[in-house]
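This part of the workshop introduces the protein records we will be handling. Each record describes a single protein and holds just a pair of labelled lines. Instead of coordinates, the fold is spelled out as a row of discrete tokens. To make this concrete, we reproduce a full record directly below:
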Amino acid sequence: MNKYFTLSFLLVFVTAILLGFSPGNLLHIQHKGLQYTLPAINVERVPALNLKQKFSIFSKKAHPVSYSFDSAVVPFSCPAKLIVQKDTTICKGDTVTLTAIKPVHVDSEPPGVWVLLINGNNIDQTAFNLKSYGYDKINQYLYSIINKRIIRYDLKTKINTEIFANNWPGNYTEFTYDYTNNRLILYHAGTDNVYAVPAAGGTWTQIGNGASDNSSYNASSFWNPITNSPGFYGGYGGFTMKNWIYENALSWIQKRANLSDCNPPKGGNLMGTSADGKTLFLFSGQGSCDGNELSGTCSLGSPWATANGMFCWLKDLYALDLNTYTFTNILPVNNSSIQYEGAMTYDYDKNRFYLFGGFQPTGDYPQNQYLVNTNKTFRYNRGTDTGFNQFVGTGAVPPAVPLNTSNGYAYYDPIDKRVIWARIDGIWAYYPDSSLIKQPKPTLVWSTGDTTTTIKVHPSQTTTYSVTYTDSPYVCKDQVTIKVDALKTQLTATTTVCNDTTRVLNAGSGFTSYLWSTGNTTSTITVDSSGVYKVTVTDSLCKVTDSTKVQFATSPKPFTIQASSDTVCPGAKDTLSIISPETGVIYNWYKVGNNTILFTGNTYITPAISQSANYVVLANTNPPICAATSATISIQVATTLSTPVVKVDTITANSVLFSWLPVPGAISYLISLDNGATFQLPAAGPTALEELVTGLGPNQTINFQVKALGKKACQESVPGSISATTLNPIGDAIFIPNSFTPNGDGNNDLFFVYGNTIKTMKLSIYNQWGQLIFYTTTQSQGWDGSYSGTKMPVGVYYYSFEATLQNNEKVKRSGSITLIR
């Protein structure tokens, strides 16, 4: 625990005693990983404390509320309790009204807007060395001199320009801007020679004489428009700090001696000026009353260690009148509102001082090398405020400056009415009275999502409700816990009984009293019928009525499913039915492997079936109390039968015997003798596996087809086919009989020309007088011995025959035939 926190810790403890505390309440403070417990103070009086710590206050009677104490004058403070109600216990089902108090934001000044003018990437760190009075407020130029380079930052155009200069006196870094003559003044330190160069660039020229000075290092340089001279305040050397003032017109002249009256203390930094430049402001810094670094004591403020000894942290603000070279206190010495050693400047248009960033020095020199900068901002309205008050701007708010880097300098820009904060990582502009960025309206939000100050809640279980009030950047929070006496029995909403006749209902133990809807007053009752049973139980605080719906049921009987057809054609529907369905039982149909209900009922007409499927039916009572009874059925999709394999068994001159192998699944067969034009049953019956084709002539070819039939028309196979030719015992010979007997006895009744290889023919028959009585070109058409329906008499007749054979040979014959009856 460091000295600074020890002091704050003791201050809180003493204040708690002075303000009063309740012995039952504790104040828990967490700081740097350690927690400290103190008596809880009156939280409504806490904001008046002048502390720089953040606490969480917890009370057995109040809820956690976060407070941040940043100054003696608090622009905004959270009330001790946002929620009026305290923690409480209610019965389940009760309604609670919660009310929140909206805090009052007393800070009436606008937050202002930050704008990043020049990004740190556009700053050459090797050429960045600013000074309090290195700003040309007329042209809005900011100058840096280091490593024999002059860099000008144009805050209007945001362009950096290097100014050429020659005849450098040395690598000097102490400079100021002479706004009277528009030039830059440069010297080594203290009362050394003084040099000047035009602001636009040129040659360094010595304008004042001096000598080496080892007593005024790190003095604050300035320009005096009254004497038209550069000057400096203070400085360090010989183990002492100074509060003298020197000016140089042609040579250095002491305007104020190194006084020991401690007004001001020896040390500090000149930062900021009045509009006419005739009043300068001395702010904070390190020093002491007597200036003796080796004394090792500090009586003005928190210690600030150095490498060789110890100086004080000067938390002061003085005005320096350049007419009289006298200092006047603006704030009381060692002012507590100066919380950080940061960059200060003065807005003379609104008579406001601004303090940006900085750190809080400690008495530990090694630690001072690694102090953490802040990006907090403060303002002090002279004549209105009693000290610096923290504020938070919007927009591109500058972050905290990294460790071991300068916090930079601040300047007032009267042209654009803004404050410039220039640092090595960027140059920002702060517009104090800007409303460019609209501030969000204050919001009050409950954890329920409600935004009204009063809400009604109906917690069913113990619930903590929180509320957050946001008035950017301030946030206040509070919470309240509503404990619900969730009085509940062991009854479930539904009690099901399967294949049993009674059931014991148990309301649970530990209640003060019981009253069932049956009139029983015990914790358990036995029931034997369906219905709703209620019980009212009480404890020391609440009463609740609970109920259970009792349902008795018996498992469904086993059942079977029948189908209109166990085999269907693709795309056909089927009708599935429960055989002897049971009354009061619900039958749900599913496909095996899919838990989506297809149908509920006794008979299910399937949609078009494209592939074989198994169907399952689950039978249960309504509601489904017992385990379901199930049955399944398989429906097959018919497929086309395989094509019959046909062969020829026996061939004669007048017949052919065809046969075929059995086709699996076939129930009958059809044959065709006309090349598939028509089909008929086999002569031996529908299931025959052979067919004898007779009545054929020699050398006659016949095409034979067989197709198999199944149970469904869609099973009909593709016909199997084969061709056969009858025998031809006489070859290409042509035989013409010389007689025939058309007497109707069925034997030799027609006169034919016989030949197995006749392709075309002409047959003419004449009587004895040469009259044509018969003519044909068809071999199968024979003469029956008549002419025009009249039977010709017995006798001799003559024929003429012409034919073309299959080998294209021409044949002509003629002769006589005898008609015999």
